[in-house]
Amino acid sequence: MPAIDAATERAASVFGASEDGTKIISVETYALSVPLEKPIADSNAALTHWIVPVVEVKTSDGFVGTGISGVHNAPELLCDIVQKYYAPALLGAPADDIVGTWNRMYWQPTHWMGRAGTVHMALAMVDIALWDIAAQRAGMPLWKLLGGSAAPVEAYNTNGGWLNFSDSELVADLLDLVDQGWKRVKIKVGSADWREDVRRVRAVRAAIGDEVTLMCDANQKWDFSTAARILPYLEEARMDWVEEPLHPEDVDGHARLQSLTTLDIAGGEAIYSYQQFSTFMSRNAYRVVQPDVTRLGGITEWRNVATQAGAMGIRMAPHAGDMMQVHQHLVGTVLSEAKPLVEFIPWTREAFLDRSRIEAGMMTRPQVPGASTAIKPEARRNWQIRAVGASQSL
Ligand code: MG
Description:
The chain is α/β, with parallel strands linked by helices. It is built from 13 helices and 14 strands. Helix 3 (98-107) packs antiparallel against helix 4 (117-138) and helix 10 runs parallel beside helix 11 (298-312). It starts with a helix and ends with a strand. Residues 217, 219, 243-244, 269 line the site of magnesium ion.
């Protein structure tokens, strides 16, 4: 169409032309509120729904890339940032210039306001959409484009062990997961009285036996003294890792805690930059990093963290803010001595056209070209939040 051609020509003078002349012609945002099977709680939040902000980026040659995030509330903030501040850096730009686009969004419209939180999560949505386009255009699933192996990847289950369960519900829930074939499971800790955690952890270990790998997650609840006090009991229960014991930005606290224990300290779901991950790793503050593609600036920045973790011999298990739809493509695509591992939470599987596939604790790689982020039309009809999102095109 002539209008698009004229605008595209103007944009090309700003952004530079892509190899094949294709351009981004529209940016649409919306959000889904997906109901959970049952209400859940950890030490920080109680949830009945998981909210999925979405961006769809269309190109002049007919591809639609989908980027997603995951939040408890305020999806309108992410959609507004994409529409008001990032869309001008996208419309008319080549879709294949992923790092260039990342830098334009990072350095210009919102950099002065911050490089974390909502502005960075909105940037991640766009970056994921551009990688989705790249994989679709290559005609292959993203993991294959990134050089990953087709072999199944081990998964661990986080959809259990919640803090709002009674002791008997907790034990029954964990036994149910083990019966389903899960070999690695995680429970929540961070009760008002840490001695309740000790009781629950002991009950779970006694019930599931020694063969199942058990992890726990305090969701940032403890101060240093409480965390240090409970560590011997977690060692006694043979925890594989202790996740987010302290405030997520307390590098010194995590490093001191790690030096006190044979358990691995894990964290990273509330860390927004590869520079901050680098600080944690170089200070021996984590032995397991949990980069989240929706909190870092998307796939582009996630790969930096995974590469550094591999180089330093640090285990890596991405946090499932994306509910595993993107991470199932990313794990195992960089060199590491540690075996790939992915976190499984099934809350939003029904929202996606190509949902993740897990059997007996093993994840099978997707086969559909792209990043497995495309949303089902019926999910949008049933769960779209009114008055959130917008659309702009050339
Ligand atoms: Mg966690």
